[in-house]
Amino acid sequence: MGIEHERIHLETSSVLIRQMPLERLRPMDFWNICTLAGTAPKNELLLVKGKEITLGKEHDNPLYGWDNEYGKKSFAVQSFEASRYLVSNSEFKEFIDAGGYESPDYWTEEGWAWKSFQQATHPRFWIIDDSGAYYLRTIASVIPMPWNHPVELNYLEAKAFCNWKAKQTGLPIRMPTEAEWYVLRDAHLDTDQPYWDKAPGNINLEYWASACPVDHFAFGEFYDVIGNVWQWTETPISAFPGFKIHPYYDDFQRAYLLTQGTNLIKGGSFISTGNEPSGLHAMPSDGIFYQHAAFAISPVKLRWRSKTISMKTIPPSPHIAIWIGNRTLPARFWTASRNSLDTAAELSIWAVKAVV
Fold first, then answer.
1. Whole-structure pTM over 0.70, yes or no?
2. Does any domain span residue 39?
3. What does the pLDDT look like over 1-27, one tens digit per residue?
4. For residue 242, what pLDDT band results from cuts at 50, 70 and 90?
């Protein structure tokens, strides 16, 4: 558990390092970034055939797992369409050029509050100089904007983009559910960490210490089904039936389970190692957190998965208060979770279309 937790800290620390002043950093040869750059491919929607799927990890699985990976839940996933590529920097720039950061019409209430507080006019890792030239901050350097790399952003920005795209096309747009992501993954990948001989995507630090072009790693007709950057989902973190909080680390998932605005991210990133690249890994992330992140879009019918967690499933702990009514967290947890604007993991977002 300690080793796997440090692997998570390797990833989240890389996001914090990415926000430090460059003069305090020194690039290292073994943290090589991807220098492949060019024109972004034109995105398109492809059909993904639906199926019945059961999520959750077996307790006799030989590999390590965090407590929220266990339990079981079945879903009947309808056929849907998903974009072939993650949304690129080039594709997201259309949203910026259309005034997406200037209109509250596209943002959720939380999203607009975050944008206004941060005075955001573009994703955190973008840099625009006085001449209007665009650059990208990587972990330890600044490079000319690689327009064919996935745009890296938080959930609130991704959701605003989806809402903008919906208004432009007249179609409902969203990101996939966790179950839909698994259907896509299962259709295009039959191996997992640590069983592959070579990672099939930009993951596990096997290729670069940065994202790469959205059309570099193919999985059949799709690209970046796993790896490159994490993938946001519309599924809030919840507990599968049979879930039990780990007795040695009882507050690892507890705070996430008790807060709103925390969604699951799937697929792993270029720097995900150990348990994180596993298909069964269920990483939560608050929507305000800034990430190494990207997303893909398509028209969809919204279908959210939600669960009700019984208070009986959350044993007493000195780290969490028992609450009733509106289920407000203790102030120290609320402040820590809502104000940690810069704590993150590498993410991406897919959006999908349900075919009815």
1. yes
2. no
3. 888 888 888 888 999 999 999 999 988
4. confident
User: Taking the C-alpha atoms of 133, 17, 284 and 71 in order, what is their torsion angle to the nearest 10 degrees?
Assistant: 130
35 found inside a domain: no
Note whether 150 and 295 are within 8 A (CB). Answer: yes
d(CA 39, CA 46): 21
Q: Domain for residue 33, yes or no?
A: no
Averaged pLDDT, 46-61: 91
Amino acid in the structure at residue 259: T
pLDDT-derived band of residue 351, with 50, 70 and 90 as boundaries? very low
Cα→Cα distances 93→98, 100, 172, 184, 292, Å: 8, 9, 20, 27, 17
Report the amino acid identity of residue 197.
Answer: D
* Residue 190 lies in domain: 2-28+44-354
Question: Smallest Cα–Cα separation from 102: which of 123, 89, 127, 119?
Answer: 119
CA–CA separation, 14 vs 47, rounded Å?
35
In a domain, 248, yes or no: yes
Q: 275 φ, ψ to 5°?
A: -70, -25
CATH, residue 196? 3.90.1580.10
Give 341-344 contacts, CB < 8 A, sequence gap 24+: 341/114, 341/118, 341/288, 341/289, 341/290, 342/15, 342/16, 342/19, 342/289, 342/290, 343/12, 343/15, 343/16, 343/289, 344/12, 344/15, 344/16, 344/154, 344/285, 344/289, 344/290, 344/291, 344/292, 344/293
Residue 354 parent element (H or E):
strand 352-354
Note the pLDDT of residue 30.
Answer: 79
Q: Are 297 and 164 in contact (CB under 8 A)?
A: no
pLDDT band at residue 314 using 50, 70 and 90 as cut-offs: very low
Number of domains in the chain: 1
Tell me the β-bridge partners of 222: 219
> Pairing mode, if any, of strands 283-286 and 262-266?
antiparallel
pLDDT digit string (tens) for 156-170?
A: 999 999 999 989 988
